[in-house]
Amino acid sequence: MATFLHRLGLASYRNRGAVVFAWLVLLIGLGVGSAVFAGKTVTTFSIPGQESTIALERMRAEFGSGPSGASAQVVVRAPEGARITDQAIAGEVTTLVGALDKLPGVTSATNPLNPAAPVVSADQAVAYSTVTYEAQAPDITDEQRKALLDALDGARQDGLTVEVTGEATREVVGIGGPAEVIGVVVALLVLALTYGSLVTAGMNMLTAVVGVGIGALGITLLTGFVELQSTTPILAVMLGLAVGIDYALFIVTRFRHELLDGRDVPSAIAMAVGTAGSAVVTAGITVVIALTGLAVAGIPFLTEMGVAAAATVVVAVLIAVTLVPAALGFIGRRALPRRLRSGARPVDRGVYRRWATTTTRNRWPVLLVAVAALAVVAVPAFSMQTSLAQRPAEGSTQARAVEIVSEHFGPGFTGPLLVLVEGDEVARHALEVSSRAKELGDVAVVGQAQVNSDGTAALVNVVPASAPDSAETIALVDELRSAVSGVDGARVYVTGTTAVGVDVSHRLDESLPTYLVLVVGLALVLLVLVFRSLLVPVAGVLGFLLTVGASLGATTAVFQWGWLKDVVRAETTGPLMSLAPMMVTGILFGLAMDYQVFLVSRMHEAHAHGASPREAVVTGFRQAAPVVVAAAAIMFAVFAGFVPEGEATIKPIAFALAIGILVDAVVVRMVAIPAALAIMGSAAWWLPRSLRWLPVLDVEGAALERGGASAVPQQDRTEPAGAVGAHEEDAGHDVPSR
């Protein structure tokens, strides 16, 4: 692999103009294509083949209606001491309903005071109207939402308390907002400090942005042909930006190292791509394995999210091994700070040597303290709860509407269950279903059955006594299914938004162990091939388990328990999004293995050159740790940028990733792994004789050194035109030799 990438890097340098042009053409082409063919993302979750999903499809067939548009619930509460049914107040409610019915995009608004179908609380203090739009939630415009809120303001002037909730009120957050800007700015500052050169920092950032742009535009174009979740582009951009910057950082850092060792620009580029590029490809493959492995859950929307994010990572890898060397060919020796271009030696990073020396010398206490600290942080993860039900932000009109409905109707009214009954004599069967549902403990109300026009199906509305995301409601779904499964002569399904969420959560929880085994197993095989060792991959995976435990533990403490929620501007607390554990596990695993590869490969390289086990750890750490620290700082900044300003469903995931990166880089890879390798000694690099037939991936580029692949033909030993590092400027300065 190193030899192939060496040739690819040299070819990219030789044809740097064509390489840059090709990537720009692809970027522009995808931009035009996405502008023409882009579709809309969706905010609903379902699993084909699940009972709740099948029932929704059957409902549309039996009751003769296609998919309805998004809806909103306008909640009206009478003034203190008055009733919503009082003549004057009832007139105001009727006027409000008439105004709602005429709003742009609205197909209907129900009258809660209609005697045929009243929606009034038992104390007659509250009623709510269901406003249905023609469009689905992602297609509702800001102007339509504003018109709805303006209508509520008009009703409030009459002394009524009016709030609104529902999917039609949720804004679909796109990419390109403050979250991305924060991450990019901080990352650029870190790059500038790391390189000591604005030119190099800008080049690194520009290539990463090109990769993210291609990935994001590709996903946007795909929405015209495939139905994708609204969070998919955001996750892909968040991950693509982080790895794109980091992968370029590793290539550029090795390029600078090769320049300082006396190579000219073309051979330094080729060697950087052959060595650091090998580590980039290996790390990228690990991330792709982790993301595409999400398909084991058997949930189409999760598979699509994983594949889309993986595709963005693939683009980042290709950018790193082609566009980055091409760009380096244009800037030449300007990649070095001015003082280093003139022959000065870089400042010795003694702090990293002292860190590694202290860690390896006190390896047992250091390892035990690190493991114990992470285990403590991971404790809250054992009480983690998940749900697909999304709680509105505290203090918002949505939250106030839910609070009013829960107080006067009951918490279950915000997420009722629907029971579909099919077969002959459905009216009789529906009565039996209703009777069985009423006997269950957590049921508040069982509505009257609605029979379709030809008498082949009936719907029974079952309102839980608990909130949609509560453990009681989750248990009720299973109890209700068991209770109605034995109705003879009828097919009975339990569905509704709450039931769909429960089904998806069940599938995710069941799939997580299988996913871990699969991804960890494949990654172990890959790492064994990379390091030709058994213990190093095992140590890396065990370190990852500490990382993900601490990450999910901290996220549970903040977003579920409410600790320090104001610091991260958490809008609400409660169960985490059902997607979060598996998604965070997959992304963190890939990124953690990135650091394992980049850090340990330099230690392996030092050991292969004859250093003692402990000295190899110190030497490799001193060489790789500065880059890993910079890479982690950048990735932390990108993920953390989505926490204060990100969309509500993304915040916990971004927080978990930011904490995970911080923990993995600072504690696991910088403390626990060096200590563990020092304890293992020579055994760390042991491979059983029975496995020595395995292919050699050669991440460190040993084949390049043995075969002299770094030699570059004389005609290629030229600097790019106009580069500051031209031979005239370097005249009179001695360049350190290897």
From TrEMBL:
- The record's region (Disordered) falls at 707-738
GO CC annotations on file:
plasma membrane
Annotated signal peptide: none
Q: Does the keyword Nuclease apply?
A: no
Residues that span the membrane, as ranges: 181-199, 206-226, 232-252, 273-301, 307-331, 364-382, 512-531, 538-559, 579-600, 621-642, 654-687
Question: Compositional bias of type Basic and acidic residues: which residue ranges?
Answer: 726-738
Q: How does it sit in the membrane?
A: Multi-pass membrane protein
One of its Pfam families is: MMPL
Q: Where is the SSD domain?
A: 181-330
Decide whether keyword Cell membrane is in the record.
Answer: yes
> Where does the UniProt annotation locate this protein?
Cell membrane
Q: Which Gene3D superfamilies match?
A: Multidrug efflux transporter AcrB transmembrane domain (1.20.1640.10)
Superkingdom as given in the UniProt entry: Bacteria
Q: Which UniProt keywords apply?
A: Cell membrane, Membrane, Transmembrane, Transmembrane helix
Annotated family: Belongs to the resistance-nodulation-cell division (RND) (TC 2.A.6) family. MmpL subfamily.
The name this protein carries in UniProt is MMPL domain protein
Organism, per UniProt? Actinosynnema mirum (strain ATCC 29888 / DSM 43827 / JCM 3225 / NBRC 14064 / NCIMB 13271 / NRRL B-12336 / IMRU 3971 / 101)
